[in-house]
Design a protein that fits this description.
Strand order of the largest sheet: 17-16-15-18-19
GO molecular function: aspartic-type endopeptidase activity; DNA binding; DNA-directed DNA polymerase activity; endonuclease activity; metal ion binding; RNA binding; RNA-directed DNA polymerase activity
Mean pLDDT: 77
Protein name: Integrase catalytic domain-containing protein
Strand content: 15-25%
Distance between the termini: 37 Å
CATH topology of the largest domain: Nucleotidyltransferase, domain 5
Helix content: 25-40%
Pfam families: Chromo, Integrase_H2C2, RT_RNaseH, RT_RNaseH_2, rve, RVT_1, SH3_Tf2-1
Radius of gyration: 40 Å
GO cellular component, one term: nucleus
Number of strands: 29
Structural class: alpha+beta
């Protein structure tokens, strides 16, 4: 560091090279060399540094420096260093192999195709690779020794002539004539290519790379590459691999297998959402030049002949070699061009994914083509971001199908059970178990309890409050709470002959009666316990009595009347009844009331079916759907700013026209069956193009690595903390939990997330 500090100015001017205590001064002519030498000697003298004359040489055409022999037109390896290379013994341990490769790496630039030759040997140095020396590795070892023994030389490039960089890469090696692919090639030869007097031409067999620098929306890694490329005067030109034999043969040796390399190919521009070509108008000109309608219009105007179309020729003008219709640029029938314009006016933050009307208005200010409105409508209907993030103004409305009533059911033989939780603590209770007579009376039984109640506690409460009064039920309807979905509760029901019906996930309409009862109960408690919330447990008997006394809208009578055959007297009557029915009359009346209640139940079910959507189309097996995110809870994630829907997910099983089983990520530990009202069809429309590009993975250290787009959420603390990430180009259904150690190649995303969440 000391030598670099005292010679920093001269080093910056590229006058000398310094390594430790070795100083190399070079120049194109003697006069300049003398000047630089005197300057170096003066700096040494000023810093009280001394030279040994016997170790110095001056004004020579050949010099030994850092193990290399440097001449005006070439560079050679030091023959002294190569002594004994042919006698190097075959390695038997990883340590011996690394010693050999360390020597080879020092002179690797002299060996063409070094990466692919040494690949079998480098494989053995990996920590998880067992030692297995075979014929392939013996050949690689012998080949390297022979190549070093031949003492090849490197020519010094002529800077006065333009450079051509030929690049190619495969999964195991990269090759070039001026070695490796674009970024690595420019890095390796930066001292030649930076500031070159001529434009450097880069030949590459990946056509899409020729458009790379025209893109505006880039990933963080691509942005860094683009910033690096901006230092050079380069032109990337596509050339098929067969026309670049030098580079292609280096990276695709036949002994490395014939596995296709398609995953390394970049996708076309049209598959990248938001990809914008800065030369849009040039593309429009090129498209107009080959468009039949444009050529017909221009020909008619030139020859002054009548318009062959319904519109007047006066509507058409030209400006800057562009054809305009009523002062709007005409866009030919080119789907890619139309999609590019739509991405520009719809996807950019400046426009914010507007709806059909607003997007159409924005485009109509500048462009026109036949069928513009329909194309915009189809494009926006297929926009994945709009489907996932915006409020659905046309939600799926499947028909409501109430659970059919058992015509022979007695009171509380078919019951539904639910819990009202998180109530203020009252008499050591914080929750309320609500039991509703589903098929017969619509009456309720209320049991104060705690939120931590388990399956055994639920069964005990039911035994004390319902079983001892009404007997064993035939059917229990409930949600998928742990009390009911547990093995204990299901086993108990099975042994007692009770049919357990669990509702569809996140669909309370499955048991609408209990949900309505819950609303009435909560309203009662707000009214009578709002000022003294810790007393609600004392009000439960009055609450239960009041509900069972009131006439139900479905049965047209009260639960008490169906259960008892009469209504209990809540307050002293104004007039004493005189004619009380006999016991036989009361039994007949009770039978009549129960039959009428059942008929009323059927009538309500038919009425509901008639007033639901008739436009519902059931989903099919294999369909892709969005799942409403209303009931999906992700830790440390803003509900207001989270996507409205997750997915798309594939329907793997159709359980009924209203219930579907989805293929969910393994990390989601929830029941995969959902009601149709929670699902929205996933629209993938040709006008919009593919919704998810599924970008090919990078190959880092021989392993596939997909790019992280964003961190969605996190859970846990310290070393146990995990992050839910979204992969670039993949839907949210592919989201995955990763540990902090997995962010080795995405530290910026992790650090930004930690800063934002104060982690």
């Amino acid at each position: 560091m000391f030598m670099n500090d005292i010679f920093c100015i001269i080093i910056t001017e590229e006058a000398i090279l310094i390594y430790m205590d070795d100083i190399l001064i070079f120049s194109d002519n003697l006069e300049d060399l003398h000047h630089k030498t005197n300057h170096v000697l003066k700096v040494l003298q000023d810093n009280d540094l001394f030279l040994k004359p016997e170790k110095c040489i001056f004004e020579v055409q050949e010099v030994k420096f850092l193990g290399m022999i440097i001449r005006p037109d070439n560079i050679h390896m030091d023959p002294v260093k190569l002594t004994g290379i042919q006698q190097w013994p075959e390695p038997h341990t990883v340590k011996q192999l690394r010693s050999f490769l360390g020597f080879c790496n020092f002179y690797r630039r002299f060996i063409p195709n070094y990466s692919s030759i040494a690949y079998p040997l480098n494989e053995l140095t990996r920590t998880n690779k067992p030692w297995k020396w075979n014929k392939l590795r013996t050949n690689a070892f012998t080949t390297l020794k022979n190549l070093f023994s031949s003492q090849p030389a490197l020519l010094i490039p002529d800077k006065t002539k333009p450079f051509i960089l030929e690049t190619d890469a495969s999964k195991v090696a990269s090759g070039a004539v001026l070695t490796t692919c674009i970024i690595r090639g420019l890095t390796t030869w930066r001292h030649y290519l930076l500031g070159a007097p001529h434009t450097t031409i880069i030949w590459c067999d990946h056509k899409n790379l020729s458009y790379f620098r025209a893109a505006r929306r880039l990933t963080p890694r691509q942005s860094r590459w683009n910033l690096f490329l901006s230092q050079f005067d380069i032109s990337i030109t596509h050339k098929p691999g067969k026309d670049i034999p030098g580079a292609d043969s280096l990276s695709r040796r036949p002994d490395y297998g014939t596995e296709p390399d398609e995953e390394r190919t970049l996708l076309p521009n049209t598959l990248f959402i938001g990809r914008i070509d800065v030369n849009l108008h040039n593309r429009i000109k090129e498209s107009q030049a080959t468009d039949q309608l444009a050529n017909t219009i221009l020909r008619a105007k030139t020859l002054n002949i009548p318009s062959p179309f319904k519109f007047s020729l006066d509507d058409w003008t030209t400006d800057s070699d562009l054809l305009l219709f009523r002062k709007h640029i005409y866009i030919p029938d080119n789907k890619d061009l139309k999609q590019q314009i739509l991405h520009l006016f719809h996807d950019l933050p400046s426009f914010g994914h507007p709806g059909i009307f607003k997007t159409t208005s924005l485009i109509c200010q500048h462009y026109w083509w036949p069928g513009l409105t329909i194309f915009v409508k189809n494009f926006i209907n297929g926009c994945t971001t709009c489907q996932q993030m915006k409020i659905n103004t046309h939600p799926t409305t499947p028909p409501l199908t109430p659970i059919p009533a058992d015509p022979s059911a007695l009171p509380f033989q078919s019951v539904s059970i639910d819990f009202i939780t998180d109530l203020p603590l009252s008499n050591s209770f914080d929750s309320l178990m609500v039991i509703v007579d589903h098929d017969s009376s619509k009456g309720i039984v209320l049991c104060p309890c705690n939120k931590t109640i388990d399956a055994l506690g639920t069964a005990l409460l039911y035994h004390q409050n319902v079983y001892c009064r009404f007997g064993l039920p035939k059917c229990i309807i409930s949600d998928r709470g742990p009390q009911f979905a547990s093995h204990v509760f299901q086993t108990l029901c099975s042994r007692l002959g009770i049919k357990s019906k669990l509702s569809t996930a996140y669909h309370p309409q499955t048991d609408g009666q209990t949900e309505q009862a819950n609303q009435e109960i909560e309203a009662y408690l707000r009214i009578y316990c709002g000022t003294a919330p810790n007393t609600w447990a004392k009000s439960i008997p009055d609450l239960e009595f009041s509900h069972n006394l009131q006439t139900h809208s479905v049965t047209k009578t009260s639960p008490f009347n169906i259960i008892l055959g009469y209504n209990p007297i809540p307050i002293p009557p104004a007039i004493e009844p005189t004619n009380l029915p006999s016991l036989s009359e009361r039994l007949c009346l009770l039978t009549t009331i129960q039959k009428e209640a059942l008929a009323a139940h059927d009538l309500a079910r038919l009425h509901m079916a008639c007033h639901t959507s008739r436009n519902f189309t059931p989903f099919k097996l294999g369909d892709k759907v969005w799942l409403e995110a209303t009931h999906l809870h992700f830790p440390n994630r803003s509900r207001k700013l989270s996507p409205k829907r997750e997915g798309p997910f594939t329907i793997k099983q159709v359980l009924s026209p209203l219930n579907y089983c989805l293929t969910l990520p393994k990390a989601w530990r929830i029941h995969p069956v959902f009601h149709a009202s929670l699902l929205t069809p996933f629209a993938e429309i040709d006008s919009h193009g593919p919704s998810f590009t599924q970008l090919p993975p990078d190959l880092i250290d021989g392993h596939k690595e997909f790019e992280i787009e964003a961190i969605v959420s996190h859970s846990g603390n310290g070393k146990r903390r995990k992050y839910l990430i979204k992969w670039k180009g993949y839907p949210s259904s592919a989201n995955e939990w990763l540990k902090e150690a997995d962010f080795e190649n995405a530290p910026e995303i992790l650090n930004d997330y930690k800063t934002l969440h104060f982690l």
